[in-house]
Design goal:
alpha/beta, 5 helices, 6 strands, binds guanosine-5'-triphosphate, binds magnesium ion
Amino acid sequence: IDIDYCIAGVRVGRTVWHSKVGKTSLIMSLVSEEFPDDVPLRAEEITIPADVTPERVPTHIVDYSEAEQSDEQLYQEISKANVICIVYSVNNKKSIEKVTSHWIPLINDRTDKDSRVPLILVGNKSDLVEHSSMETILPIMNQYSDIETCVECSAKNLKNISELFYYAQKAVLHPTGPLYCPEEKE
Ligand code: GTP
Ligand code: MG
C-alpha cells in the first residue's frame, strides 16, 4: 500500500498573530528528529520506507504551502490523499475556527462522498500553552464522522510527532469510523 498524505494548513491571513501553524516544521521534525530553526515554505515530498514506519508501509508525505501552491494543486493533492492531517495551532483560536469554516468543507467538496478520506486534527505548538485545546476540538470531532482522531503535539519539543504519523497510517490501514454512511446521503 502506498499511503499519501497531505498536511493541510490552517493559516489565517498574513498577520503576525495569525501565525503559521507549523506544517513544514512537523514534517522536518519527524524526518530529522530535531526541531529545525529555519524551514522552507514547503517541505519536499518524502517517502518514509516501510521498515522504519510503525505499520510497515511506505508512507508518502506531502506538505502544503498556500504561498507556493495554487488552489488547483491543493485540490489535486487532496484527491490523491489516503489521509489528510489538518493542522491548527493550539495557541491560535482563529486557526481552530478555520478547521470547520474552511478546511473540512473544502476537503468534503473535493472528495468522493462514497469514499471517505479519514481526517486527523493536529494541534501543534503544545509547548506554548498550558491548557489543552481538546475542549474546543471534541465537539468538532462529534460533528464530523470523517475525523478519525485528534492529537496535540509540538514540533519544537518533538512531543507526539511519531504518534501523529502513526495515527495517520493507522487511519488508512485500520479505519474505525464508517467508510460509508447511507443516512448521510438523504
Ligand atoms: P506555511 O507553510 O507558511 O503555511 O507555514 P507552516 O504551517 O509550514 O509553518 P512553519 O513550519 O513554517 O512554522 C511557522 C513558525 O512556527 C516557525 O517560526 C516555526 O519555527 C514555528 N513553529 C513550528 N512548530 C512549532 C512548535 O511546535 N512550537 C513552537 N513554539 N513553534 C513552532
Ligand atoms: Mg510550510
